[in-house]
Amino acid sequence: MSTQQVLDWLQTNEEQSIERFMDWLRIPSVGTDSKHDADTAKAADWAADHLKASGFSVEIKPTGTAEDPGQPIVLATSPGDADYTGPHVLFYGHYDVQPADPIELWESAPFEPIRKPAEGAMGERIVARGACDDKGQVMMFLEAMRGWYESTGKPGGGVKYTVLLEGEEESGSVNLERFVEDNKEMLSQTDVCLISDTGMLGRGKPAITYGVRGLTYLEVILTGPDQDLHSGLWGGRVPNPINELVKVLAQLWDQDRKVTIPNFYEGVRDLKDSERKEWESLGVDPVKALQGIGMPAEANVGEKGFSAIEREWARPTCDLNGIIAGYTGPGAKTVIPSQASVKLSFRLVDDQDSERIAESVIAWFHERTPPGCTWEFINHGGGAPATCATESAPLQAAFRAIGKACGIQPAMIKSGGSIPVAGLLKTTVGLETIFMGFGLEDDRVHSPNEKFELDCFRMGAKSHAALVEELLNS
Amino acid sequence: MSTQQVLDWLQTNEEQSIERFMDWLRIPSVGTDSKHDADTAKAADWAADHLKASGFSVEIKPTGTAEDPGQPIVLATSPGDADYTGPHVLFYGHYDVQPADPIELWESAPFEPIRKPAEGAMGERIVARGACDDKGQVMMFLEAMRGWYESTGKPGGGVKYTVLLEGEEESGSVNLERFVEDNKEMLSQTDVCLISDTGMLGRGKPAITYGVRGLTYLEVILTGPDQDLHSGLWGGRVPNPINELVKVLAQLWDQDRKVTIPNFYEGVRDLKDSERKEWESLGVDPVKALQGIGMPAEANVGEKGFSAIEREWARPTCDLNGIIAGYTGPGAKTVIPSQASVKLSFRLVDDQDSERIAESVIAWFHERTPPGCTWEFINHGGGAPATCATESAPLQAAFRAIGKACGIQPAMIKSGGSIPVAGLLKTTVGLETIFMGFGLEDDRVHSPNEKFELDCFRMGAKSHAALVEELLNS
Questions:
Q1: What pLDDT is recorded for position B120?
Q2: What confidence category does residue B446 fall into, taking pLDDT thresholds of 50, 70 and 90?
Q3: Residue B77 bridge partners (DSSP)
Q4: pLDDT at position B221, please?
Q5: Which of residues 413-432 of B touch A (CB under 8 A)?
Q6: Is A334's Cβ below 8 Å from some Cβ in B?
Q7: CB pairs under 8 A, 24+ apart, for B12-21?
């Protein structure tokens, strides 16, 4: 029994696969909205039933507390062949979806999935909330599992899988951390994490994402006078919290656009020459990317000494994400406000420590307290960066699987974004994560008219199918 | 005929004066609110009638255009004695009042004035919108004029006055500039401007304000990408408008808290040693003032080399009055926004030029344009600073008048605030302005439960009465 038979099964049964996929999409599993709790539970049950039908042992695990229950976690396992020597794979995904708002911008109902021709390309797409993120990407895995089971009678085709599908990814995975902590022993049995929730390098260009950045997110509030003041009577006599805040914030970066927080770069791995060359060879054009957001070539700036792709994938950053103080309505008001506040976040790379960075940042602000003023800090959380060694056996298996299934070598890429579950699994149970995702930049994830190309869906299902054989042989 | 007889008249007729004052306060002349246009016109007529009853020749002048009419200006004149050799005085005031909102915080109806005992002090106060700003302060002058007319039969007691009362002071005096321009010749006949719209040094401490600061107010918007971006995918690859804006804004001040805009201090008059000494002798305690706004002594910071009072009265400043960009709601959002904007204002002193400063500031920002970004500027206007020479004869007359009327030498003070009409009259018709105001810091001007102490009202009316004799003798 080989992959080819499963690929044939996938092709022969594609209409049914798509019907199943659309059934799942019809369930409005908006995990963040308690009005949809019954739907969210239904979507979990739906995934559980699918996995059961593919021979998996399945449990639905409640999360949260009696007073504040969370969305259930679907936990499924395949035993693996008796002689299986490959890695025990933890497949992570989520069955909750973003809210559909703004509903009026949808061209079709978000929870009534439709098939329609893909613009300017062959093939079709599915349009619905969750079509890509993450039901569509999870469905590729589920259908590959079904194909192997129906073709061989063996759950997971003989590979030892643990499948963990959560229902709170879009609302911050608030109960996942505790679940992982509580199930540390069980999760420690697994060898590597596999996630399909990332993108390809471009249309028809599959990719493995072998690293994501971590995050530290703080809100900082500076308080000066206990009331708003008239800037005529007080201007020049008292520290103005806006003046003072911008003077402190401007010190976050030096002339080379490096972050100035002491020890900030501690642990940052040096870029290998081989990586630099590989990334350069991907042919990603930073100027074209800037054009896409209305900016000229000269806007290609960032930390000195690194290309755009290096800055996104391998270097930490500091961005102010929001700032507000004083009068912000129309016209003029001559006020010195009592407070000024800013939200700032740091994207982190291996092996920076998110919590230590938060502490360093807070200490840094305290060293710069304007006269007579006070700081307040709110830590909005974050997560560890996660990089998988490119030479790791499971990653190499995935690399080969995609190559065989798609007939094209996948690009080895990283992402500047953050997928906190990867950092969580790394720091809690020491797992590395392989991101095998098939999304496209224009899939409108989190936006109205979210879609997933059936071409991408097929590549993903075939790749997951091919990965089984690679794992069996490893 | 001497001041004493007019002072006697004021005392004898005080109840009627207060009744008249309260009648005027009952008219809700909220100039900025077109629903109150009839009330505003009525308040103008009321003032006109009062001036007519005091022998003045009065006109009501429409302002604005046929399509966009403004509030009327009350223009009244007294001819002056045939042998009058003193200055032709332009008395400026306004009969419009601030809106009463938030109405629920008023302890009595804002347009139903009441007399009540003053807290912790002898005497009474009037509580109503406009009680101090500016009907109460104008009323002091009007009753002094009435007293002289009823005592002597001569309008203005023989002094040559032009009285200009506008109805748009609280909404930016939008039509006054044009009125002044159109009536330049008439206004050029006057020698000095007299305004009662400022405060005393404290309870029982009358003062002449001989200077106010000017203002330049700009809004600056920095645009980077043409859309909000994901800070994971773009952080480090593109200029973040918030990062870039704070880096530029922080350069507005140097280590000594001086403004760094080139030529900003051009024209700033050096502080005279005599002024420094006089101001120090006023005994204003900056630390006590800071305590009143919840700040410790160390918050007494500002431009190096100057005391708090010097910084407020004699030095220009730059304050950020509002800033907004990115995500400012609860929690976290990892966004790089398309735009960031700030409102900033400069308080100016003689002889800085408000318009030239605006140009310098805009040029300064342009020299600091972040890569690929663009600036947009909105000029919210401003006004010239205005300082009256302390040795000027009319100011000395006012000084003597207050001293005689109140039995206490007035303090000679300045204000850090801006009264644009003074700058307008200075730049358009070359007039200096004397501010002879009797407000107290706790009069809750612009706030609910605005009040005016009858003690202050009496001091003001008596001082205006005494000023007539000083002018007749000058």
A1: 65
A2: confident
A3: B57, B162
A4: 98
A5: 415-418
A6: yes
A7: B13/B147, B13/B150, B14/B458, B17/B139, B17/B143, B17/B146, B17/B461, B18/B115, B18/B126, B18/B454, B18/B457, B20/B50, B20/B139, B20/B143, B21/B113, B21/B126, B21/B135, B21/B136, B21/B139, B21/B143, B21/B457
> Over pLDDT 90: what percentage of chain B?
90
- pLDDT attached to residue A447: 86
Summarised one tens digit per residue, pLDDT across range A98-148 is 989 888 989 999 999 999 998 766 689 999 999 999 999 999 999 999 999
Contacts of B382 in chain A (CB under 8 A): none
3-state helix, strand, coil in chain B (%, to 5): 40, 20, 40
- Please give the C-alpha separations between residue A264 and each of A92, A343, B240, in angstroms, as whole numbers: 31, 18, 20
d(CA A377, CA A363): 11
Question: For residue B51, what are the domain limits?
Answer: 3-212+385-472
Nearest alpha-carbon partner for A211 in A404, A88, A474, A395: A395
Domain end: B364, B383, B402, which one?
B383
Average pLDDT of chain B? 95
Q: Mean per-residue pLDDT for B322-329? A: 95
Q: Give yes or no for A347 touching B (CB within 8 A).
A: yes
Share of chain B above pLDDT 70, in %: 99
Kindly report the CATH number assigned to the domain that includes residue A409.
3.40.630.10
pLDDT for position B118: 85
Q: Is residue A295 part of a domain?
A: no
> What DSSP string runs through B194-213?
EE--SB-SBTTB-EEEEEE-
- Look up residue B129 and give its DSSP letter: T
**Does B281 map to a domain?**
no
Name the minimum distance, in Å, from the CA of A264 to any CA of chain B.
Answer: 15
Together in a domain, B108 and B252: no
Pairwise CB contact (< 8 Å): A343 & B321:
no
Residue B216's φ and ψ, nearest 5 degrees, are -130, 125
ipTM, interface predicted TM-score of the complex? 0.91
Query: Which residue in A290, A332, A381 is closest to B217 by CB distance?
Result: A332
Q: Do A217 and B418 make contact, defined as CB atoms within 8 angstroms?
A: no
Asked if the Cβ–Cβ distance from B237 to A298 is below 8 Å, we say no
The b/e string for B179-207 (b: 16+ C-beta within 10 A; e otherwise) is bbeebeeebeebbbbbbbbbbbbeeebbb
How many structural domains comprise chain A?
2
| Longest CA–CA separation in chain B, Å | 85
Check A215 against B334: CB less than 8 A apart.
yes
Residues A64-98 have pLDDT tens digits of 999 999 999 999 999 999 999 999 999 999 999 99
User: A441 and A400 share a domain?
Assistant: yes
Both tokens of B354, joined, read 């408000």
Concatenating the DSSP letter of every residue in A80-137 gives --TT--S--EEEEEE-------SGGG-SS-TTS-EEEEPTTSSSEEEESTTSSTTHHH
Confidence check: pLDDT of B119 > 80: no
Report pLDDT digits (tens) over B45-94: 999 999 999 999 999 999 999 999 999 999 999 999 999 999 999 999 99
Residues 228-287 of B with CB under 8 A from A: 229-240, 242-243, 245-247, 249-253, 286
CATH classification at residue A221: 3.30.70.360
B409 with B375, same domain: the answer is: no
Distance from CA of B237 to the nearest CA of A (A): 5
The minimal CB distance from B237 to the residues A286, A322, A341 is found for A286
- Does residue A277 carry a pLDDT above 80? yes
pLDDT of A331 reads 86
Please tell me whether residues B183 and B323 are part of one structural domain.
Answer: no
- Whether A1 has a pLDDT exceeding 70, the answer reads no
Q: Cβ distance A370 to A248 under 8 Å?
A: yes
